[in-house]
Amino acid sequence: MASQDTNRRNFLKIGSSALAATAVSWNATSYASIVGANDRVKVGIVGCGDRMKGALIPAFQANAKDMNFEIVAVSDIWNRRREEGAAYIQKMSGNQIAPVRNNDELYARKDIDAVLVATADFQHARHGTEAVNAGRDAYVEKPTAHTMEDARLFRAAVHKTGKIVQVGTQRRSTPSYMKAAEYIKSGKFGDIVMVEMTWNVNQPGRWRRPDVVPLLKEEDTDWKRYLMNRPYEPFNARKYLEFRLFWPYSSGIPDQWLVHQIDTVHWFSGLPHPRSVVANGGIYLWKDGRKNWDTMTAVFDYGPLDDLSKGFQVQYTSRFTNSAGGVKELYYSNGGMLDMSKQTVTPTGGLTAKSAAEMNMKANLLPSFPLVEHAEAMETGLGTHVDAETSANMRNWMECVRSRKTPNASIEAGYSHSIALCMNIAAIQTGEKVTFDDKTQQVMAGGKVHA
Fold first, then answer.
1. Choosing a second label site near 209 at 20 to 30 A (CA), which of 190, 192, 250, 297?
2. What CA–CA distance (Å, rounded) separates 144 from 424?
3. What's the confidence (pLDDT) of residue 383?
4. Alpha-carbon distance values, 124 to 121, 133, 151 (Å)
């Protein structure tokens, strides 16, 4: 017991200074010695919808003064969002903001050093690719890509240009998740034997925009530019504003929620992608014209790609129809459980002395402790309208723009979650057990490449 208490105290001390540096970040003297660090970084907005205004811009502004960053322009193809976005940022920052009609006009400006991208799910990779090819660093919302073609394109562009890209999987800049990753990788948790994840809501209006859809007219936007590389179809305001309900603009649950949680599996385990995925579900309740499921269960097999005798399952369930269970991420080892919703490690389900003795084995029970002490929690004083996790992720990106170091949520992390996402989508669309070919970097369903 004494050794367990010592391990607990040591773990709670692990990396505290590093975590503080990521979550609270540098002060002016920390980056003053970096070349160009005293120059103001001027940023453009790509897509000024709900996510940008509700999360990214507040997170940006919470760090902008200290890090010497400034938003100077807004690119949005819908004139209403463009003008309202510019006015919103101008009111928040006090700076004059230039509204521009599209990204071509944005990148023609010489005063744009970096961009924030929060457009429709299917556009992220292409818009990220545009940004780095135009010589700009970028903070790009998740999912990184829901087709492998787009994922490969974006990753290759980032590697070729050397630009700094942060993916919007903000758990990677969150102290409790960082501590969990360190704990599992230390070996103290033991091998992962199972992961259970849920994301449940009871919200018929989730991802719906009934009050906004009538306001969007085709003549006020650029429908062909919106479609990018997707097949042409006539203008549809719902598919523009409620894109999360319609493939090929989003897969819904996997695009929006799965990627956040499955990203932690890759991070904690060190594995690049699932070995296989199966999925089932449907539109069981909300018959509102949507094409993406309102309920899904998927099972992922993870483990060494060259040793099928080792591994674990991830059971992922999500529904819009009943909120019981909420959002959970539960990691199990033979010794107990790591609960990311409660931010605790406990001996729950671990091997007891009685059961162990039956096989001449020893008990294997983890000590109970919080992942993050109260004093280390993300109480940043940012205000009620700023998401602390997104703010920490934004701050880490700003630091890396200056230092040229790899961000916490790198393009490789985004590529890995894209593989899992594309495999999940293939399982939904084909009903097959889906695998991944590492040589070709292709998703395989029923022995065939799934585009």
1. 297
2. 14
3. 52
4. 6, 14, 10
In order, the DSSP letters of 9-61 are HHHHHTTHHHHHHHHT---HHHHTTSTTTTSPEEEEEE--SHHIIIIIHHHHH
The secondary structure of residue 308, as a DSSP letter, is T
Instruction: Extract the tokens encoding 217.
Output: 């007219």
Run of H or E including 159:
helix 148-161
- Residue 237, both tokens: 């305001």
Task: Note the pLDDT tens digit of each residue in 49-88.
Answer: 999 999 999 999 999 999 999 999 999 999 999 999 999 9
CA-to-CA separations, 370 to 191, 336, 363, in angstroms, rounded:
20, 14, 22
| pLDDT confidence band for 378 (50 / 70 / 90) | low
Q: Cβ contacts of residue 3 below 8 Å, gap of 6+?
A: none
Whether the ω angle into residue 248 lies within 30 degrees of 0, i.e. cis, is yes
- H helices, E strands: number in the chain: 17, 17
Predicted confidence (pLDDT) per residue in 192-223, tens digit? 999 999 999 999 999 999 999 999 999 999 99
Contact (Cβ atoms closer than 8 angstroms) between residue 76 and residue 47: yes
- Which residues have C-beta within 8 Å of that of residue 67, sequence separation ≥ 6? 25, 26, 41, 395, 398, 399, 402
Q: What angle do CA 368, 374, 378 make, to 5 degrees?
A: 120
Q: What is the pTM of this model?
A: 0.91
CA 242 to chain centre: 20
